[in-house]
Amino acid sequence: MKKFVSFFLSLAFAGSTFAQMSGYSSSQSDDVAIGQNPYIVRDGIALGNHYVLSGHAHVGFYTSDLDGGSSSPMDDLMNKESGFWAYADLDSQINFDPVTLNIHTNLSDAIFVEQLYLHFDIADSFSIDAGKFVSHRTLRAEEANERFLRSMTYYNSEGNLGNVINSGLQQGYEKVFNDLLTGFASSFDAADPTANISDLLSDLAPIYEALGLDLSALDDLQTDLAGAGTIGEVMTITNEAMTELTAGLEGAMAKMISDMALVRGNYRSSYNKGIRGNLNIGVVNFSAAITESLWNGMPDMGDGNVALDLQAVAYIHPSFAIKTGYAFEKVDKVGGIVGLVIPNSDDNIHQFHLGGELAIGGFTGMLEFGDTSINPYDTDIWDIALTLHYQFTDMFGLGILYSHEDLETPFGDGDSDLFNIALNFNFTQNLIFGVDYTTADSKIGGAKTDYDLFTVNTLYSF
Predict the structure, then answer these.
(1) Cα 324 vs. chain centroid, distance in angstroms?
(2) pTM check: above 0.85
(3) Phi/psi at 234 (nearest 5 deg)?
(4) Which of 257, 288, 316 is the C-terminal boundary of a domain?
(5) Which helix (H) or strand (E) holds 2?
């Protein structure tokens, strides 16, 4: 950790010295939130006295290469290795003081409403948001037209971890039932069908429990099998037991779907419904949100599901700011079939992050670290990210990102490293042409993944 800090401070000093020696004059705005790129305009367009439209259009070409990983034949079919993308992000503000309606939409092949909330100005320093809004638990800016680099920051927690969990669960299901069949094969004696009944039924006990069936039914099954005199009677009794198992599958499938609702593509950012309070005291901004969920895709507050998101930003100096946050979600541990694969599951999810930004002349450096505990999946993530950007002239900037993750999962421990370099050409204050290259390698358990992504993109912001 000390090496990272020393490296960061050295680069900050070097960037400041270079800017002073070169006579570079920054055109950045002084009123820019932490983590945001000040070299592109996002002022919006006033369409009348009460309506402001802002947003961006992002068009580009990408080519990628993925070796290893947790992809399935279906994933390979659906995910293209190269092609074009095009989308627009339109954000509307309809203001009738003291209330503003905010509607953020993403337009591509379909229209997706990302955020829809009412903003109430209660006092000069306090406001309330109610509706669907973003929870962004990282230093990197949320929107593409706010970022210095447009790639992901973390390979697993912003993309691949959901694939790891899905693949690990599938392999776990296969192992559970393969072990069950192997146990039956080794215990069953065709010459004496009633032999080794206790061993056979002990193999069935975890399956009965996972399906929510009464374990006393196994005692009845053992009694029936002990009284069987022929192989035909044994088969009849066994078929009846299988019918009972099948009847329990519907409830087990519902439980499995509920337990897998925490599998998602991004564990650092989400859109959630709830209420949020915002307090600005001088150079310190606080926000506290209560939402129905941050990570759970199927929340039900009637079942006790609730999430809390606390964020704070301190603008300590015009050149230095700190952001920190803590997020919590009350969610039950997994059970049923998923519980057979993740036996050490526990309740609730916790996430903490802390980061700082230093901006001197044309140099901007950001360092952050975080810790996430996804207890229902028995998964812990520790990560760190360093972002450096230098605006050499009004028309050209260079950005570099490095991140590292350490992961502990029930499917094996591992880590990941990601490196990204971005060349930004500011043709105007509203238009950036970018060339980005990202490379990442990840190792979890015995699986190793190498990922490369090259993009050429144009971003128009207003």
Answers:
(1) 18
(2) no
(3) -60, -45
(4) 257
(5) helix 2-22
